[in-house]
C-alpha cells in the first residue's frame, strides 16, 4: 500500500506525476514547466495551499529552482521537497528529473519537505562553509550535494547553499549530524 500524503504535491510534468503516483497516494498538480507562470496555474496552487497545503517537488536543476521561486513568490508558506541530482539521473542517457527517482527516494524527499522561514536565522556564515569544506575545496560541490540530500534542502552553489541553511532553519545539531554521515 502506498503512503498517503495529505498535502497536494506540485510537479513539473506528466512523467513526474507517474513517478510520484508510484510512490505515494496524493493529489498532484502538474505545472507544465514554465507554464507555471500562468495565473490560472498559480491560482490552482494557491487554492491547494489553502485547502491541503502544498509540497513542491521539482527537478534538481536550474529550471526546477526557477519554478520553485515562481510558486513561492505567489504562494507563501509552501513546503519544498528535494531529490539529489544522482538520485534523479537516468543512467542510460544522463537525463535528470523527478521521473527518474525511485519510489523510496521520492518518499524520503516528501518526508523531509521543509518550509522556508519568514525571517531567516543567520546561524551559518561563509566561514562555516569554508571550515566544513563546503566551499573552497576540490570536493566542495560533491559535499554540498551529499549534505543537501541528508538535510532535505537540495543542492546549490556555495552562496545558495548557505542561504538554504539559514532560510530553512537548519540547526547546528542537524548540520553536524549530516556532516558526520
From TrEMBL:
Per its UniProt record, what CDD domains does this chain match?
Answer: TOPRIM_RNase_M5_like
- Give the species: Ilyobacter polytropus (strain ATCC 51220 / DSM 2926 / LMG 16218 / CuHBu1)
Q: Which reaction does it catalyse?
A: Endonucleolytic cleavage of RNA, removing 21 and 42 nucleotides, respectively, from the 5'- and 3'-termini of a 5S-rRNA precursor
Broadest EC class?
hydrolase
Q: Which GO terms describe its cellular component?
A: cytoplasm
| Pfam families documented for this protein | DUF4093, Toprim
Protein name listed in UniProt? Ribonuclease M5
Q: What is its EC number?
A: 3.1.26.8
Q: Which GO terms describe its biological process?
A: rRNA processing
**HAMAP family named in the record:** RNase_M5
Q: InterPro entries this protein is in?
A: RNase_M5 (IPR004466), RNase_M5_C (IPR025156), TOPRIM_dom (IPR006171), TOPRIM_RNase_M5-like (IPR034141)
Location(s), subcellular: Cytoplasm
Q: SMART domains from the entry?
A: TOPRIM (SM00493)
Amino acid at each position: 500500500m502506498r503512503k498517503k500524503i495529505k498535502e497536494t504535491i506540485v510537479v513539473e510534468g506528466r512523467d513526474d506525476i507517474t513517478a510520484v503516483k508510484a510512490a505515494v497516494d496524493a493529489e498532484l498538480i502538474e505545472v507544465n514547466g514554465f507554464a507555471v507562470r500562468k495565473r490560472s496555474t498559480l491560482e490552482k496552487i494557491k487554492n491547494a495551499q489553502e485547502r491541503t497545503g502544498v509540497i513542491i517537488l521539482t527537478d534538481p536543476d536550474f529550471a526546477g529552482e526557477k519554478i520553485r521561486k515562481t510558486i513561492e513568490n505567489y504562494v507563501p508558506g509552501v513546503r519544498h521537497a528535494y531529490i539529489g541530482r544522482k538520485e534523479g539521473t537516468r543512467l542510460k542517457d544522463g537525463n535528470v528529473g523527478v521521473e527518474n527517482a525511485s519510489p523510496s527516494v521520492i518518499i524520503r524527499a516528501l518526508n523531509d519537505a521543509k518550509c522556508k522561514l519568514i525571517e531567516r536565522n543567520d546561524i551559518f556564515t561563509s566561514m562555516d562553509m569554508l571550515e566544513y569544506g563546503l566551499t573552497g575545496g576540490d570536493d566542495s560541490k560533491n559535499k554540498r550535494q551529499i549534505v543537501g540530500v541528508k538535510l532535505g534542502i537540495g543542492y546549490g552553489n556555495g552562496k545558495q547553499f548557505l542561504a538554504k541553511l539559514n532560510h530553512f532553519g537548519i540547526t547546528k545539531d542537524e548540520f553536524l549530524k549530516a556532516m558526520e554521515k
